[in-house]
């Protein structure tokens, strides 16, 4: 079984994905980390993020065994990932790995932007997680402060708005809810309440 979770930045996709995967005993992949990992290699090499060919080559040769590097979770990597993820050859290069991951038994949870629409359109369960930009910026602000990153709330809110706009307006695999996805607005739900609500939606879709 596949649980596909999509939604905008800092809506809580990863947190829900992890908890749902633990609950069902499924594997979990935060697909944003793949794009962040491509961005990390580009930045470390000093490549321009506008260099599509270089980004495609990096994606084709990506080492997916180091996705737990805490550096990937930083704000700089999120912004850079959003730029290189708009290139079709980059997305094509990362598709097979994601689909392979989704084929695991007894099941897999994948979270990202295009899981229900492009990566796993056949997923039995599709959730689209949202929250207001202000609430998402508040969450990301707290997260970055805990990581020890300097970050102003207003800057994060601007970053989130810009990234959402870029992710929604790109021509390839734009961020949008699949037609058969169920939307969960977590603006007024803490992580526990969001998990309970998501679990109910999963049970509804599986039935
Ligand atoms: N429902 C929630 N209420 C408050 N904070 C949350 C909630 N869900 C997640 N968080 C926190 O918000 C931040 C972003 O969550 P994350 O799961 O990484 O989002 P995404 O994967 O959508 O970017 C994390 O610090 C996480 O602990
Ligand atoms: N399936 C995915 C996942 C991420 N991405 C891109 O990668 C960037 C970083 O994704 P992420 O999920 O790690 O970002 P956050 O939601 O955690 O801020 C996003 O802004 C998207 O541009 C994508 O295009 N498709």
From TrEMBL:
<keyword id="KW-0808">Transferase</keyword>
<keyword id="KW-0547">Nucleotide-binding</keyword>
<dbReference type="InterPro" id="IPR011994">
    <property type="entry name" value="Cytidylate_kinase_dom"/>
</dbReference>
<dbReference type="GO" id="GO:0005737">
    <property type="term" value="C:cytoplasm"/>
</dbReference>
<keyword id="KW-0418">Kinase</keyword>
<dbReference type="GO" id="GO:0005524">
    <property type="term" value="F:ATP binding"/>
</dbReference>
<dbReference type="GO" id="GO:0036431">
    <property type="term" value="F:dCMP kinase activity"/>
</dbReference>
<dbReference type="Pfam" id="PF02224">
    <property type="entry name" value="Cytidylate_kin"/>
</dbReference>
<dbReference type="InterPro" id="IPR003136">
    <property type="entry name" value="Cytidylate_kin"/>
</dbReference>
<comment type="similarity">
    <text>Belongs to the cytidylate kinase family. Type 1 subfamily.</text>
</comment>
<feature type="domain" description="Cytidylate kinase">
    <location>
        <begin position="3"/>
        <end position="202"/>
    </location>
</feature>
<dbReference type="InterPro" id="IPR027417">
    <property type="entry name" value="P-loop_NTPase"/>
</dbReference>
<dbReference type="GO" id="GO:0006220">
    <property type="term" value="P:pyrimidine nucleotide metabolic process"/>
</dbReference>
<protein>
    <recommendedName>
        <fullName>Cytidylate kinase</fullName>
        <ecNumber>2.7.4.25</ecNumber>
    </recommendedName>
</protein>
<keyword id="KW-0963">Cytoplasm</keyword>
<feature type="binding site">
    <location>
        <begin position="7"/>
        <end position="15"/>
    </location>
    <ligand>
        <name>ATP</name>
    </ligand>
</feature>
<keyword id="KW-0067">ATP-binding</keyword>
